Amino acid sequence: MKKMFLTLFVLSIFCFTSEIMAQEVQTGKFHTSNADPSYTLDKNDGVRTMLVEVEYPKPFNKKPEVMVGVNLVDASNAQNLRYSVEVKSVSRDGFTLLVKTWSNTRIFEIGGGWIAVAPN
To answer: What pTM does this model have?
Structure first.
């Protein structure tokens, strides 16, 4: 009887702990280029920005933390490469990326991946 009680106790602790530690995770890709009529990262000089809207495949139950990484940059080799990518406006349904360049840099396209993690 003691062994059965102990087994049930350990099993219930394990189930409770695994439920607390569970997380929702989703991944995806982003991309923007000068094929978009509102694209400005390849024109003029100075600070230029582009907003990229990303929608999760499935809405989260709680607002996630989002991380991004760039794995594609097509830019002119006549100038220095300058860019930043920031996560903005995170919600349960998606987020917005702010892609920025400055000075005389010309970026023709930029893309990468993202991962969103939210506690259950």
So the answer is: 0.79
**H/E run at residue 17:** helix 2-21
Residue 26 DSSP SS3: strand
Closest CA to 28 of 75, 74, 97: 97
* Residue ranges for the chain with pLDDT beneath 50: 16-20
What residues have CB less than 8 Å from 29, skipping those under 6 apart? 111, 112, 113, 114
Q: Which domains does the chain have, with CATH numbers?
A: 23-119 (2.60.40.2080)
What pLDDT score does 23 carry? 84
Written as one string, the DSSP assignment of 30-95 is: EEEETTSTT--TTSSSS-EEEEEEEE-SS--SSPPEEEEEEEEEEE-TTS----EEEEES--SSEE
Phi, psi of 29 (to 5 degrees): -125, 155
Q: What type of residue is 40?
A: T
User: CA 84 → CA 28, 63, 99, distances in Å?
Assistant: 19, 23, 6
